[in-house]
Amino acid sequence: MIKLENVTKSYSTEVTALRDASFDVAKAEFVFLVGPSGSGKSTLLRMMNRQERPERGAVWVAGRNINEMPDSKVPHLRRNIGNIFQDYKLLTDKTVFENVAFALEVIGRPRHVIRQQVPAVLELVGLSGKEDRFPHQLSGGEQQRVSIARAFVNRPLILLADEPTGNLDPATGEGIMRLLDRINKTGTTVVMATHDQRIVNMMRKRVIQLDRGVIVRDQARGVYE
Amino acid sequence: MISRLRYTLREMWASMSRNKTLTAATVITSTISLLLFGLTLLIQRGFDNQLKLWTGGVEMIVYVNHGAEANQVAFVQGALESQTTVIESVTYCSEACATEVANTLFAGDQDSLQQLIPKIPSFFKVKPIDKDSGEVLRTLKSTFKDLPGVFDVRTPDQQVEVLSQLKSFFGVRTLLISGGLLAASALLIWNTIRTAMFARRREIEVMKLVGATNWFIRLPFMLEGLVQGIAGGFLGGIFMLFINRDWTNGVRAFPVSSGLEGFVVTDGYPYTVWLIMILVGAFVGAVGSGTAASRFLDV
């Protein structure tokens, strides 16, 4: 589903975010990217949805080299990739329903599809009955669930999660992980960057560890070291 | 398609409502700029109308009394044509011909036409041999103004030259000023869109991440600028029509001997100018918002 070949990215002559990174992620796989701050986890995620381009190497997503993809095709690529963030990135002036519907609306989905898909995904993430609430009326865990619903409502092939439990207490974080696991079991590939040792050890999924832009470990059913 | 259109219009309206003060400032600036632009076109047209009376080297117009007999007309014509040493040519315009001229000058202004046509005089356009001699013109005027059948004699003296100079003076300068103001409007629209995009940067970021195309994101902003430009053109046009109506009424009250009766624009031209103003407003709005929406998409 995702393939990186010798990817290198620098932000300046002194800062190399990634150096010669290569790995494959299969369809429906769950992968943790771990490592200290500044190790290149977020850069890797940003390359997978073409928010950034490598200086060298290639990034393949769903069989296409996305670095060579024309800019006009990038939106279509992103419709197959859901994004989840530590700070949720919800729109504060929109309700839960509107936040999720927004993701469908801006890609031109008709109203009847939105009316059908949004309640279904809100039920999946456990937010039925809270459609009319605004983000500030929700807990952190609930806000992250809205963010997951928004990322998943279009049934993407891939879900990229950047520290999704970073702002949550352990119990809420576990709930979010259970939800991501359920989504992964529907066949969606999940790539998650995290610092959360407890969660990585609990999930026992593949772990790719980065250190100063270099992949130092790639372990199936790994733990946080 | 309908959902996209609904989204675009809704977002455009939301953005304009959120920035009421800036939107109002932009529309007011566009209105004033386009009003000045429209008035420039009208002024040019007014000068053209006024100059039409004196084109082709005509330096003197001899008006014959309304309803004058053919022999009286022939007498005046004979008197004019006998001045072969000072007059190069004489052209007669009958009352029917004068009505046609009036219809062109006052097209659409039924009040003026109704007042003028029942007593419209025929006239002779006279080209003197020496066009630059004010003395010759004054002598001719005094010779013919008291002839039987003659209603009035008009000479432009330096009027044509003054009119031409004024036309060029006002035309160029008002065009430059209105061009400058239009550029200011475009910049203000540009800045308004930039501010609107900055205010919605989080939404834009989310839109890009979920796969909205750049055009989809830009469109509400571009439409916002377009609407501001069109609103400026529309409102400026209304003010222009009021000003033109007041001017036309004012000119009608001038004494007949003022020589400014042609200095009005009364045919359908003001409406054409209104349309031009709306189109120019739309263009300015589209350019301002289009460049901003493209440039600041990565907010």
Describe the structure concisely for a colleague:
With about 220 residues, chain A is α/β, with parallel strands linked by helices.
Detailed description of the structure:
The complex is a heterodimer of chains A (225) and B (299). Chain A folds into two domains: 150 residues, Rossmann fold (3-Layer(aba) Sandwich), CATH 3.40.50; 67 residues, no CATH class. The two termini of chain A are 26 Å apart. A six-stranded mixed β-sheet of chain A has the order 6-7-8-3-9-10, with helices on both faces. In chain A, strands 2-1-4-5 form a four-stranded antiparallel β-sheet, covered by helices on one side. Chain A is of the alpha/beta class and 225 residues long. The radius of gyration of chain A is 17 Å and the shape is globular. Chain A contains seven helices and ten strands. The mean pLDDT of chain A is 90. Chain B is an alpha+beta fold and 299 residues long. Chain B folds into two domains: 186 residues, no CATH class; 96 residues, 2-Layer Sandwich (Alpha-Beta Plaits), CATH 3.30.70. Chain B is 70% helix and 8% strand. Chain B has ten helices and four strands; from the N terminus they run ααβαβααβαβαααα. Chain B has a four-stranded antiparallel β-sheet with strand order 2-3-1-4. In chain B, helix 2 packs antiparallel against helix 10. The relative contact order of chain B is 0.18. The chains are: A alpha/beta (225), B alpha+beta (299). The interface between A and B is medium-sized, with 24 and 18 residues.
